[in-house]
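Feature request, filed as a ticket because there's no other form

It would be nice if the structure record came with a short human-readable summary line next to the tokens. Right now we just get the raw output. Example of a typical job, pasted below so the devs can see what we mean:
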Amino acid sequence: MNKSVFSLICISLGLSVFCLLGGYCAELRAEESVAPASEAQYALSAGFKNMFEEHNPQAAVKEFEKVISLEPGNSQAYFGLGSVYFVQGDTAKAEKYFNKAILADFENASAYEGLGNCYFRSGDYKKAREYYEKAIVMDKERPWAYFHLGKFYSSTGNKEGALEQARILAGLDKDLEGKLREQIAADNP
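Raw output as currently delivered:
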């Protein structure tokens, strides 16, 4: 795998997690207007904020661990820990926490996608594809999963598979579709 593909995958996972954070924070703000958020919800929000807005992964880890101490089955906190470790390059720890996220919530599409990125990074392309596809099964409207699966196909020489993902993205996210088509053109001159 060339360095540009690897870098783009790392960046896209970060962006994917950031998008998840935006959605989660919006949900949290909506809930706050109806009922007070729990200590765990505040810590979860703080964990994602520390990671993406403050760029403080150590503080993010502390907040996610606090959530887990308060709510041991909180799938999003495990996903947050997996994301921190993935961005830091610790694929083994990232896998561990993405798997814990899935154990806590079998339908956590973000965690399946995170595992796909871990396997892609480690060169286990069969598992990468499997987990990207599982993310899509869990959430058919998840543009980042189609994007990552398309990048996987493109980087492994399956141009038609990549183009199919781009066609699906056309109905979900035009920006990601464009980025995927650029990657396909770069990988398949």
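Something like this underneath would help us a lot:
Residues 3-124 form a domain with the Serine Threonine Protein Phosphatase 5, Tetratricopeptide repeat fold (CATH 1.25.40.10).
Confidence is low (pLDDT under 50) at residues 1-11, 17-36.
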